[in-house]
């Protein structure tokens, strides 16, 4: 299964180093000195304001993770905390930054000292809503039958952006692909895939894995195995890291049905 790093080791390699240094110092010092170390660590971090709240973040951290770590929600589908290079493909995490003309992608924008971020600006919300409605135009919404209902990120994002899952703003192109039940552990329903790329990233990170990837272009783009083989024949062993990171009902464990 996927092992996520403890929160203090997440973020850039610089923040990882800073956390390690702080830990080492704390182990060698008295409680009073430890408090001082923690205060100093905070002072050395980046201070910014999101939605009127002053928060601290690790240097090199992106606005997305700084916000989420402080309980401020920004819609996101493709971001992976462990990935040093965000794919920035879903275009759902737009925010507005004071002094910048156009909204920026929060998962791609590093925090800066004194930065002022607004997650609820009209321009940013309009872009995020459009991205979501485009995505929904090719998504078969049948939450009542879907094993991910209740934990699905798409439901959460639609609720946050106040967009109906049944939105018909854009012409619908629903895929009609066969559901892959060849794995003994999980089921892959490509029709529900939002092409976030999380499963591909996590699979390709593993030594001797890389069993799945993107294939084809445009409306035909899908996540599949080499040679479009059923996923159960991809020699994944008992790894199901792809299932663990899927934010919707495209990959789900058999025992959740
Ligand atoms: S993936 Fe999410 S939005 Fe789509 S049908 Fe399942 S629960 Fe509903
Ligand atoms: S199968 Fe799931 S994790 Fe993989 S790209 Fe599709 S939605 Fe993302
Ligand atoms: S989370 Fe930022 S573009 Fe997907």
Short description:
With 257 residues, the protein is of the alpha+beta class.
Structure write-up:
The protein is of the alpha+beta class and 257 residues long. Among the domains are: 1-44, no CATH class; 175-257, Alpha-Beta Plaits. 29% of the residues lie in helices and 13% in strands. It is built from seven helices and nine strands; from the N terminus they run ααββαβββααβαββαβ. A five-stranded mixed β-sheet has the order 2-1-5-3-4, with helices on both faces. Helix 1 runs antiparallel to helix 2 (31-44). It is globular. Residues 1-31 and 33-41 have low confidence and may be disordered.
Count the DSSP helices.
Answer: 7
Taken in chain order, the helices and strands follow as HHEEHEEEHHEHEEHE
Bound molecules: iron/sulfur cluster, FE2/S2 (inorganic) cluster
Helical content, roughly?
25-40%
What's the CATH topology label of the domain at 175-257? Alpha-Beta Plaits
Nearest-integer average pLDDT: 85
Radius of gyration: 20 Å
Q: What structural class should be given to the helix and strand makeup?
A: alpha+beta
The span between the termini is 20 Å
- What is the CATH class designation of the domain at 175-257? Alpha Beta
């Amino acid at each position: 299964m996927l092992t996520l790093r403890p929160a203090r080791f997440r973020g850039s390699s610089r923040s990882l180093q800073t956390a390690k240094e702080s830990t080492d110092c704390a182990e060698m010092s008295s409680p009073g000195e430890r408090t001082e170390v923690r205060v100093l660590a905070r002072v050395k971090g980046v201070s910014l304001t999101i939605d009127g709240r002053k928060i601290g973040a690790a240097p090199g951290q992106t606005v997305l993770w700084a916000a989420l770590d402080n309980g401020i929600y920004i819609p996101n589908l493709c971001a992976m905390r462990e990935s040093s290079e965000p794919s920035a493909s879903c275009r759902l995490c737009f925010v507005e930054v004071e002094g910048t003309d156009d909204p920026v992608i929060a998962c791609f924008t590093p925090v800066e000292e004194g930065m002022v971020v607004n997650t609820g600006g009209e321009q940013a919300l309009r872009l995020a809503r459009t991205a979501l409605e485009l995505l929904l135009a090719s998504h078969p919404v049948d939450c009542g039958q879907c094993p991910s209902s209740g934990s699905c990120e798409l439901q959460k994002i639609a609720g946050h952006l106040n967009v109906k899952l049944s939105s018909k703003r854009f012409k619908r192109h629903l895929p009609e692909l066969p559901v892959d039940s060849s794995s003994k552990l999980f089921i892959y329903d490509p029709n529900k895939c939002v092409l976030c790329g999380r499963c591909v990233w996590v699979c390709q990170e593993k030594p001797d894995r890389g069993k799945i990837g993107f294939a084809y272009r445009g409306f035909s783009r899908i996540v599949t195995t080499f040679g479009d083989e059923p996923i159960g024949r991809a020699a994944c062993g008992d790894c199901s890291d792809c299932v663990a990171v899927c934010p919707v009902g495209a990959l789900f464990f058999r025992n959740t049905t």
